[in-house]
Design goal:
This protein has 197 residues and is mainly α. The chain is 54% helix and 4% strand. It has a single domain, classed as Up-down Bundle (Hypothetical Protein Ta1238, Chain: A), CATH 1.20.1200. It has five helices and two strands; from the N terminus they run E-E-H-H-H-H-H. Helix 1 packs antiparallel against helix 4 and helix 3 runs parallel beside helix 5. The chain is elongated. Belongs to the Cob(I)alamin adenosyltransferase family.
């Protein structure tokens, strides 16, 4: 099998049900999900300690779901059977609720980082946010599968929660943004408000 087809030499690419310019916002959106999936794969390689086996297993599941999301975004066919399900959104919410209880109380914005694996999760979080912005832009002009947007919105929160848990398990304190006001007020940083300020 050849890896090159030459069909994209004029700046267009195939999607499910047609062809688009490679600069189209739909292509940018699912391209960002592909980039994110690569970073998730890299992050898994940083979770070799047995204390992270639960998280590594979840990331493997998320990689498959990101492929589902990308496929759903690449479909311009009206009758395409979308793969991203509400159950996947619920799974992320349940894991976040668990990790918010495990991590210490959070009152202020924190700096991305701490341990190496936590830093990778923050990179995943910010790529997810970019993908979300692109999906929202696409939604303004084209039809999308709405569960994809919900899933990606939850996923960035999930990465934030996991980054904090990873630092906690490694006994590394999150570094608070030194000029931050108290913003979470007893919510344990549930959700990723610091990325949506």
């Amino acid at each position: 099998m050849k890896l090159y087809t030459k069909t994209g030499d004029e700046g267009k690419t195939s999607v499910i049900g047609g062809r688009l310019d490679k600069s189209h916002i739909r292509v940018k959106a699912y391209g960002s999900l592909d980039e994110l999936n690569s970073f998730v794969g890299l992050t898994i390689t940083k979770l070799y300690d047995p204390m992270f086996c639960d998280i590594a297993s979840q990331l493997a599941k998320i990689q498959h779901e990101l492929f589902d999301c990308g496929g759903d975004l690449s479909a311009v066919k009206q009758d395409y059977p979308f793969k991203t399900k509400d159950e996947s959104v619920l799974f992320l919410e349940e894991r976040m609720d668990q990790y918010v209880q495990e991590a210490p109380e959070l009152e202020r914005f924190i700096l991305p980082g701490g341990s190496e694996p936590a830093a990778y999760f923050h990179i995943c979080r910010t790529i997810t946010r970019r993908a979300e912005r692109e999906i929202v832009e696409l939604k303004q002009t084209d039809t999308i599968h709405p569960v994809v947007l919900r899933y990606i919105n939850r996923l960035s929160d999930y990465f934030f929660a996991v980054a904090r848990v990873v630092n906690y398990r490694l006994q590394i304190k999150d570094v608070e943004y030194e000029r931050s006001a108290i913003v979470f007020r007893g919510r344990k940083g549930k959700g990723n408000e610091q990325d949506e300020k």
